[in-house]
Amino acid sequence: MATNNSVTKNQKTNIIVITGNDETFQNLLSIIQKSENCGELSGITRSIESTIEQLQTTQLPHMQQITPLPQNFSLTLDDYNRLNSVKLSYDIAFRPTTAKQDVSAFDHISDRRSGLLYSTSLLYDLGMKLITFIRSIPEFEFLNEQNRFILFKYNSPLVLYMRICLCYDINRDLVFDPEAQSEEYAIVCKQLLQYCYGEQLDLASTQLFRSIKNVTDDDPIILQLMLIILTFTKSLSVENIVENEQSTFMNSKQVDEAQSIYASLLFRYMIKKYSTYYQAARQYSQLIQKILRTQMLIRTFQQFFQEQLINTRDDELNPIMKSILNLQ
Fold first, then answer.
1. How far is it, in rounded angstroms, from Cα 298 to Cα 164?
2. For labeling, which of 5, 147, 179, 210 is most exposed (least CB within 10 Å)?
3. What H or E segment, with its residue span, contains residue 129?
């Protein structure tokens, strides 16, 4: 259903960073929230890198680091209930529903194209589980149908990438879900993707997986919350809406408020995890930096798919994946 709302690429980005009064953190907040062009992520990233460099060389006075936090930075009983609900919803949505995948799944792959098509089928299966997870989030269900469609269609590539990151095993250097697949399958799958995507894309992806895991201390709760936060991110959606001349959000404020709930919850959780506001803010800021880099990598992957799978038939590639990968 079309609306009369006008959309331009100069809308503010919607990745929210919760910070205090420290000037360095306020600069970071300004860069992310007040970017004049949400499509030029490279410019935003360069600015953030400069700010992070300042942050890393900034030494807060000892008393400022140990000052007790205000009450509104502490996790409440409602927060703990929400965290438990997110974890339960995630576990239910992504639990295996079939026997473990093994190497026999690769028997039909004969060339690069068939390998790419197989990888998109894996993304489709993952996407269906992602829908189950996101629809268990009350704030998502409260949105109207058009808003839900726009957010999922345009944000799902980034959210799917973060879900894959959750399964990345740093020690094995593998995307590996031991409950859903054998280790042998994971190893062969890695080799297949290296062949299909090429060494450069595979290396860039692995480096991002590793850096995101490191900056979050491999904490699944942080990444589970990020799945929700990124689902409610409007910046990518707005850019794609403009490019494809699609209808825009019917209630933009409701989307903002939904994202703010989980962005604030994540920051309070990180304060609890790292014990100090200062350390939590550093980790949060670095995580946002990784997300921005991931957005750029996702664009590269989408362009790659568009080049390699052009004119793919519906019986080869699910129409939903065609839409998500912008192959239509």
1. 13
2. 179
3. helix 112-135
